[in-house]
Amino acid sequence: MNPKNYFGDRWNVFDFLIVVGSFIDIIYGKLSPGGSNLISINFFRLFRVMRLVKLLSRGEGIRTLLWTFMKSFQVSLFPDLLTIIKN
């Protein structure tokens, strides 16, 4: 696939930006382990989460799986908190 065809699809451009943002995050983390805030690194980490947007738009099965995971997480949240508090 040549670059013209690759960047013709908006989802590929989206993936490219996520990968570039992740590289910036990794390189910046290695160069400044003290955590100086010249740029907000959390902004670049947000791009990784945005990949869910792509997954959700691709298919019904993925949406159902993610919805089920979110609902099960909500249900298990309170028993987990009680277990943590008890210990």
Automatic annotation (TrEMBL):
The record's section on InterPro entries has: Ion_trans_dom, VDCC_alpha-1_subunit, Volt_channel_dom_sf
- Entry GO MF terms: high voltage-gated calcium channel activity
Any idea where this protein resides? Membrane
* GO cellular-component term (any): voltage-gated calcium channel complex
Q: What is its main location?
A: membrane
Q: Where is the Ion transport domain?
A: 3-74
Instruction: Write down the Gene3D superfamilies for this protein, in alphabetical order.
Output: Voltage-gated potassium channels. Chain C
Keyword Cytoplasm found? no
Q: Its membrane topology, per UniProt?
A: Multi-pass membrane protein
Which GO BP terms apply? calcium ion import across plasma membrane
Q: Which UniProt keywords apply?
A: Calcium, Calcium channel, Calcium transport, Ion channel, Ion transport, Membrane, Transmembrane, Transmembrane helix, Transport, Voltage-gated channel
| Protein name, UniProt field | Ion transport domain-containing protein
Give the taxonomic lineage as stored in the record: Eukaryota, Metazoa, Ecdysozoa, Nematoda, Chromadorea
